């Protein structure tokens, strides 16, 4: 007997000639914005336009880590609320997002790194975030397999432990948001390419696609690694974004031994153990701008060396899969969430770098409010595009550089 499973979201079929809003990009940020627009603001006449299939880009190419241990006072409230949204959305969407707050341990490998973490912990605690400094012995208690001896090239001096952090199943988030948005009336058009954005009298009036023009007065550019090219190529708005490749991989399945997410800025390495027993691990991004998602032997070697230094029990374990994704990185490693004074109705949610997954739901929540009301929420105002012209770059990079510099 042959049977056909029921789709999680409906297929809209033909493209309507007009929508109240068009969202370019069927990733987590685009889907989250569509869901919140429809569910919380009653704006259901929305089209999500995706060139490939939903979750094709960064949404399906990440290691699913969520946390709120950022450094700056602009970022901390945003990521704190994002972390608190996962259980709320699980109930609201009636969909298991597989959120597991196993805790996040960031390692320090020098006295200077401990000092930088002390500042980071104080900033986070001031914002009401659960985080604390831990010494090497406490790191070992959290992760018994961790080598805290003098043998590694960079010995463990301590770390900061963030109990609410953890992991969420990224595919489940894509499916849950798509289903939730579709139930509210949102049209999700896959395999549809946006070819242009029409502007008249200083206002957005339409979006051109490979299937025809859509008349609309609101457009959100939420295309991840392709957002800068869309903005500059279709509207002449240049964004200070470099597109960089980030690679990740998983090992063969192992018996459970890693109860928390562990990361090291010095080793440029982070890891967690999945429900299947695989150790999912990633590294820093490629140091040159590119649009390739090819994998390299260099990173396989790097990850093997870094993981076996920190967790010697992994020596001899095989990597099973290796993948790469595109990160749209701004100079201050903070996103651009803004409208445009010269082209009314054009909104941007891009430049997330490798922080896009953990922030997707809260960014969608506030971008939906922005689009529906035309008024920028206070929590988004620090992320305006003009901060680069006004030299108001955020200090998020300082925390990363301070404990990853090899000096």
What does this molecule look like?
- Helix content is 29%, strand content 23%.
- The chain is of the alpha/beta class and 407 residues long.
- The protein has a domain of 176 residues: 3-Layer(bba) Sandwich (FAD/NAD(P)-binding domain), CATH 3.50.50.60.
- The strands form 4 sheets. The protein has an 8-stranded mixed β-sheet with strand order 5-6-4-14-15-16-13-17. It has a 6-stranded mixed β-sheet with strand order 8-2-1-12-19-18, with helices on both faces. The protein has a 3-stranded antiparallel β-sheet with strand order 9-10-11, covered by helices on one side.
- The C terminus is likely disordered.
**Global geometry:** globular
Spatial ordering of strands, largest sheet: 5-6-4-14-15-16-13-17
**Stretches with pLDDT under 50, minimum 5 residues:** 398-407
Head-to-tail CA distance between termini: 66 Å
Q: Tell me the major beta sheet.
A: 8 strands, mixed
How many helices in DSSP terms?
Answer: 9
Please identify the top-level CATH class of one domain.
Answer: Alpha Beta
Q: Quick gist of this model?
A:
The protein is globular, with a radius of gyration of 21 Å. With 407 residues, the protein is an alpha/beta fold. The protein has helices at 28-41, 75-93, 111-126, 136-142, 170-183, 227-235, 297-310, 356-373, 396-402; strands at residues 21-24, 46-49, 65-66, 104-108, 132-134, 158-162, 166-167, 187-189, 194-200, 203-209, 212-215, 219-221, 242-251, 261-264, 269-273, 279-283, 319-329, 336-338, 346-350.
């Amino acid at each position: 007997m042959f049977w056909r499973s029921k789709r999680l979201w409906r297929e809209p079929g033909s493209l309507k000639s007009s929508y109240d809003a068009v969202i370019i990009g069927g990733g987590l940020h685009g889907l989250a914005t569509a869901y919140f627009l429809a569910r919380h603001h009653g704006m259901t006449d929305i089209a999500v336009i995706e060139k490939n299939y939903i979750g094709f880009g960064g949404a399906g190419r990440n290691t699913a880590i969520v946390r709120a241990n950022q450094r700056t006072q602009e970022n901390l409230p945003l990521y704190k609320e994002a972390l608190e949204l996962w259980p709320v959305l699980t109930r609201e969407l009636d969909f298991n997002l597989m959120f597991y707050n196993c805790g996040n341990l960031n390692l320090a490998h020098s006295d200077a790194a401990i000092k930088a973490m002390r500042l980071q912990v104080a900033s986070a605690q001031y914002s009401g975030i659960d985080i604390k400094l831990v010494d090497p012995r406490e790191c070992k208690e959290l992760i018994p397999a961790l080598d805290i001896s003098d043998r590694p090239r960079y010995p463990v001096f301590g770390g900061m432990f963030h109990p609410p952090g953890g992991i969420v199943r990224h595919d489940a988030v894509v499916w849950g948001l798509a289903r939730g948005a579709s139930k509210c009336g949102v049209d999700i058009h896959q395999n549809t390419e946006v070819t242009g954005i029409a502007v008249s009298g200083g206002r957005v009036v339409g979006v051109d696609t490979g299937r025809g023009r859509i008349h609309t007065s609101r457009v959100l550019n939420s295309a991840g690694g392709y957002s800068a090219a869309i903005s500059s190529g279709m509207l002449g708005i240049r964004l200070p974004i470099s597109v960089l490749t980030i690679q990740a991989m998983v090992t063969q399945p192992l018996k459970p031994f890693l109860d928390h997410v562990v990361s090291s800025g010095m080793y440029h390495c982070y890891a967690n153990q999945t429900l299947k027993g695989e150790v999912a691990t990633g590294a820093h991004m490629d140091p040159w701008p590119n649009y390739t998602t090819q994998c390299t032997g260099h990173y396989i070697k790097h990850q093997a060396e870094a993981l076996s230094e920190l967790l010697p029990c992994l020596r001899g374990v095989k990597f099973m899969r290796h993948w790469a994704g595109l990160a749209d990185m701004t100079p201050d490693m903070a996103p651009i969430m803004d409208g445009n004074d010269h082209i009314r109705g054009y909104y941007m949610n891009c430049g997330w770098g490798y922080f896009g997954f953990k922030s997707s739901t809260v960014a969608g929540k506030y971008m939906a409010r922005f689009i529906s009301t035309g008024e920028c929420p206070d929590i988004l105002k620090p992320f305006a595009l003009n901060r680069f012209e006004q030299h108001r770059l955020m200090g998020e990079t300082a925390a990363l550089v301070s404990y990853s510099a090899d000096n």
